[in-house]
TrEMBL record:
Predominant cellular place of this UniProt entry's protein: membrane
GO cellular component: a single term: plasma membrane
Protein name from the UniProt record: DUF423 domain-containing protein
Highest rank taxon of the organism: Bacteria
PANTHER family named in the record: TRANSMEMBRANE PROTEIN 256 (PTHR43461)
Subcellular location as annotated: Membrane
UniProt KW keywords: Membrane, Transmembrane, Transmembrane helix
Transmembrane domains' residue ranges: 7-27, 47-63, 70-88, 100-121
Protein family (similarity comment): Belongs to the UPF0382 family.
A Pfam family recorded for this sequence: DUF423
Species classification: Bacteria, Pseudomonadati, Bacteroidota, Flavobacteriia, Flavobacteriales
Keyword Transmembrane attached: yes
Bilayer topology: Multi-pass membrane protein
Length: 131
């Protein structure tokens, strides 16, 4: 699972960089400042979680089963959270009303929070020295 988790992190990070550059250059002329800031929030959280998955993939503080769960929670969380933000922020530019995705954003946020809390619980329960 470490390979898959780190691969997911790498793809997620690369896509975050691509979308960040696209937002800064390609969307600058078609989105207002608020929409652009919203889009950048999605990029920022995606990158944070790419780095998080790199750590999860490399840590020995938890089991493979828990790593797998954290990976799924994080990837689905980012897809829901950042993905819905990307679509909502670009609604006026695309001409497509994505307001129906509004409830998906907090669900994605909750999944990402659960991933972090699951790691926290695993670290607290670990009885061996972490060094």
């Amino acid at each position: 699972m470490d390979r898959k988790t780190i691969a997911a992190a790498a793809i997620m990070g690369a896509v975050a960089i691509i979308l960040g550059a696209f937002g800064a250059h390609g969307l600058k002329k078609v989105l207002d400042e608020t929409q652009l800031a919203t889009f950048e929030t999605g990029v920022r959280y995606q990158m944070y979680h790419a780095i998080f998955l790199l750590f999860v993939g490399m840590t020995t503080l938890t089991t493979e089963k828990v790593k797998k769960t954290i990976c799924y929670l994080t990837v689905i969380g980012v897809l829901f959270f950042s993905g819905s933000i990307y679509l909502l922020a670009t609604s006026t530019a695309t001409g497509i009303d994505f307001k129906f995705l509004g409830p998906i954003t907090p669900i994605g946020g909750l999944l990402m929070i659960l991933a972090w809390l699951l790691l926290f619980v695993q670290v607290i329960r670990k009885k061996h020295n972490i060094y």
